[in-house]
DNA sequence: CCCGCCAACGGTACTGAGTACCGTAAATAC
DNA sequence: GTATTTACGGTACTCAGTACCGTTGGCGGG
């Protein structure tokens, strides 16, 4: 009669018990017992007690990797945005489950650490991807890749957490907006390769000088960077 | 005759055994035995097997918090820079020990995760500090704080790892340079309050258009933001 | 000198996560 | 039908971490 697969029953039992007694106060034996299976079966479906809460981080990480490797240079930044959106949509799809997990990670330090470690793996993937497509192995370029990856992940976390707390009604739009804000921090490096335009590059800075005072040096700078 | 305190002997024994057999292959009993003490004594000095490798993350975290709270608004960014430098100097002071730890965290996933979790605590501290001094509780301001904290920490990690790998001879200078680069990403929010200048704000973007084509809209934009 | 005190240590025993291995029942292939 | 896979339960083990108790060795005050 109990046709629901053991894997599901175990997850349900685990979340129910975590809610009732708390995470540390719940043993794997408790979970298995409530799910009506043996202790061995639990570890057959989940490698650890923590993994029952984060069941598909591995799959998600693989999906991100796939999205990144199947991208040409011209669509690189789009690929990063897409990959981030992938993660966000996954959480949204989970719906209430994601929020219950958030409640747990907010209370239990061990789970928060685990979550952070997972996010760090995403970040590492992004960093390597960005560094690869920049080609430049300089220290400053490497730092740049590190910063971009950190920004992308931080923006994602920010929007995701807002949604998890119920502070956002349209997280996807917020994510797009946040990503725009992040990418605006970095002068887009793709333009020069993507097209042979002789356009204008405007660098971000602030100065007390008037725009007209700056124009000569601006022109000089642009001529210096574009060749002539 | 063995006058060296048990705490030191335990740390030495632990690092030696980790080098010889690897982290997972070394039990706490092994460490205690080599240090010539009982197993209980180990846990009296270190709360866990991992903590023998990261003995003073708590102290460092407290030091950072101290540095941050003892700062006025005008010296806020200086305080963040100082706090980051504090961490870097701590590692440099450790010297070879820091490098042995780095070798371990590079190989053992559990230790890497632990390290990442510690760094995340620094980042959280920075984020809260920056968000506090911004005052603005808007979503975009909150995102901004998140991004700045992520950048500061990412820059620190980048320089620190370079030094740990022996790729940097003057990490402190590199850190200053990296911090400059990070702060350059964010238009300094203090300019408008600090002085009543009617200067020019240049926004970063790229376009295919020529500079002269852009000038009118640039002027319009500037007049729109500065009042008239 | 002895007493009481306190800190550091060792030993034993326990809980609980995770692993290894073995046996078994049902489903599926052939 | 038999053989093989698949999923499961049970037992026994290792090891990290906790709790508790007893012991030793100073150390100052009487």
TrEMBL record, chains A, B:
Domain HTH tetR-type span(s) in chain numbering: 4-64
Q: Which PROSITE patterns match?
A: HTH_TETR_2
* Keywords per UniProt: DNA-binding, Transcription, Transcription regulation
The record, for InterPro entries, names: Homeodomain-like_sf (IPR009057), HTH-type_TetR-like_transc_reg (IPR050109), HTH_TetR (IPR001647), MftR_C (IPR041347)
Q: Name one Pfam family in it.
A: TetR_C_14
Record feature DNA-binding region, as residue ranges: 27-46
- Could you identify this protein by its name? TetR/AcrR family transcriptional regulator
Name its species.
Answer: Streptomyces ochraceiscleroticus
